[in-house]
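ESCALATION

Customer reports they have been waiting on this structure for their group meeting. Please prioritize. Original submission:
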Amino acid sequence: MSTNWNHITHFSQTLTQRVGKKLIDDFGAATPEEKNDGSLVTKSDVWADNALGDAIAKEFPEHGILTEEGSQTFPDREWCWVIDPIDGTTNFARGIPVWGISLGLLYRGTPVFGLVHFPPIQQTFHGFWNGETGLEVPSGAYFNGEPIRVSPDEPSDNHLFSFCSRSVSWVKHPFPCKIRMVGAATYNLLTVASGICLGAAEATPKVWDIAAVYAIVRAAGAAWVFLDGESVFPLVEHQDYLKRPVPSLVVSREALVEVFRRQISPE
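Update from on-call: job pushed to the front of the queue and completed.
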């Protein structure tokens, strides 16, 4: 049976925009609490998680759902949505306008579609990636509806590389690019897809942080390196992903992977 990708894209855009409008009301005013893993959560995260999951279950009742704030166990379903209701909760709670709503669609455990919407700055990224799934999937990555591609440039002091707060300690100096840190894993990695940065590193993302952006980043032409040595995809049925970090390095093209790997030392 063919997949209606236009419907999936329109549904994801409409849903994240609707949820984003409600979250804007709470932006900078939500009270964060610390979870067992040390990350923050607010009532807004929980509300958004439920709103997104309920809408998906109604629209695609045959699909499974894995969410940050709900079930973190990969279900026995051919299709599964992976939800991060607010990526960048610390930014959201502290009033920094870089946080997003992330939806990834997996086929047999591998991301084939991703959409991330950043309500405060009105930026939306989406993309399609068939990998080795054998699906007929549209090609391309997009920013606000326009095609994007990784940068073809060589590293220099006038180019950027983005780290998370935990991976910035990996840097060996002198580093070949200027360093940036944005505080949201999805936006961090999407800077590579959009050509802003030549690379990005995340030390402890979970599958809900990367499921959507994996499809977008790969569609834009970037190389993705799983720093623990093995790909987390395809996800495994009935496995709980709550406690599994997925340290990752994303680079604008394969030829630069070793250039940057020599300059970072994961702890």
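Sent to customer with the following note: The mean pLDDT is 95.
Escalation resolved.
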